[in-house]
Amino acid sequence: MSDHNAERAVTVQPGGAPLTYTILVRGFAAAVDMAGRSDRPQVRFDLTLTVTHPGPGFPDDIAAVMSYEDIVEDLRRLCAESGVPGPDYLTDRAADLCLSHAKVRRVQVDVTIPAPAPGGPAVGASLTRVRPGQE
């Protein structure tokens, strides 16, 4: 199928705001090489992405919509890094990766890293970032 993105106008809601939809990625977990830890904890990511809706009558084509699989692949590459400094780094990088996709307008990232010792507190970070000009 051909991609008619150039021909598609952005659909707006009453009041002029572009039509969007939400993608949820919940419970993505992967082992991460954390700096200062001998284990590889299973780090959990929860994402909420606000993305531009392709408009009415969009083709049944994955290129017309934002695929959560693209985000999951980005997270897998992020989690494969060595010596990750902490949850702040992971939230910041995950937000950057999400916003590198042109259709993503806003992202909220929550990262949880389990305690190194059983019964200890988990640590984490949460970050919300909006594409410049989309505030």
TrEMBL record:
- SUPFAM superfamilies documented for this protein: Tetrahydrobiopterin biosynthesis enzymes-like (SSF55620)
Tell me, what is an example of a GO biological process annotation in this record?
folic acid-containing compound metabolic process
Domain Dihydroneopterin aldolase/epimerase: residue ranges: 23-129
Query: Out of the domains of life, which is the source?
Result: Bacteria
Q: Under the GO molecular function aspect, what terms does this record hold?
A: dihydroneopterin aldolase activity
The protein's name is Dihydroneopterin aldolase/epimerase domain-containing protein
Which species is listed as the source? Azospirillum thiophilum
